[in-house]
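Let's sit down with a protein and look at its sequence and fold side by side. Which protein we use is up to you, so please pick one and set it down. Label the sequence line and the structure token line clearly, so we can match residues to local backbone shapes. Go ahead whenever you are ready, and we will take it from there:

***
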Amino acid sequence: MKIHEFQAKQVLSRYGVPVPRSKVAESVEEAVDAARELGGEVWVVKAQIHAGGRGKGGGVKVCRGLEEVRENAEKILGMQLVTKQTGPAGQKVLRVLIEEGMEIIKELYCSVLVDRTKQSVVLLASTEGGMDIEEVAANTPEKILKIFADPSLGLLPYQASELAYGLGIDQINPKLLRPAAKLFSSLYQTFVHEDCSLVEINPLVLTGDDRVVALDAKLSFDDNALFRHRDNADMRDLAEEDPLETEAGEYELNYIKLDGSIGCMVNGAGLAMGTMDIIKTYGGEPANFLDVGGTATEETVEKGFQIITQDPNVRCILINIFGGIVRCDMVASGIVEAFRKVNLQIPVVVRLEGTNAEEAQKIIGSSGFGDRLQMADGLGEAAEMAVAAAA
């Protein structure tokens, strides 16, 4: 689950991470009043949407004087902000963050995430703050520092200090070594205690008044741990999320909308990824990622059909189920019943493998739905059939 920048900074500040003084505004007048209350002569107006690259899209403006705050708030509020992460349709800006201006001496980058190969939390840092970290990794990977925190020990003080020295903070302003190390420790504590999947500060800035400040912040929470953090769940902004993904989440289905024409319904994330790959191998494009879980039932299959068919681009559905925990004949019965209830009018290709697969094939074959519901012998054949049906 993603949250807005202003919400991320509220969470971070609880763990002692220094953030700029700021106020949220949902109208131009609120924006001007916020700048007036913050005081000073320079402010930043920042669009609040769940996407990076806002500055490049015109969603972040530095303002010198209240009149500039007004002008930029008028431009940003209500705009359809397009960034690399929003896609060409963009995202409508419903609120802005008015933030104090500051003298920036150096921009850095820092993030915290899980490295699954190392089975530990990793802190990434770079002197190339303000840039897309993907570009830094591709062009100058030597500029990315990595510190791995042992799961049983956490981030140790010497590791936080090592990161501060590695970024050359001692050469810029030795006074900021200790505050920087403390900030890194606070980011780690935030990540662990709030069950985050990502904490990203870009840029992390060193200021002229001897501060280390998280100038921008991005937090994502692990959906599976939200039951432990009801206050975090309350920060969810449904207006920023795809309505089909939200609906799927209510039924514990993992759904992500894509741009293709072949709807996918699979049990297991790895199998779902493999299914999408083989669809592309046969010249098709998947319309979604949909993992119905390891124990697919008639109810989940029916709901999966309903969600997939709300996408007008879907011309065929490929169901790929491996019967391990759940029997294939039970899944087949659920597919036939769900097919009848939803009254599907587009072709569906089914590949069932595993326990009681032969019985499942008989159930599908005798369903009476003719060419609209077909059984495939193997994943390759299923993908080929689905691509042909969607053509």
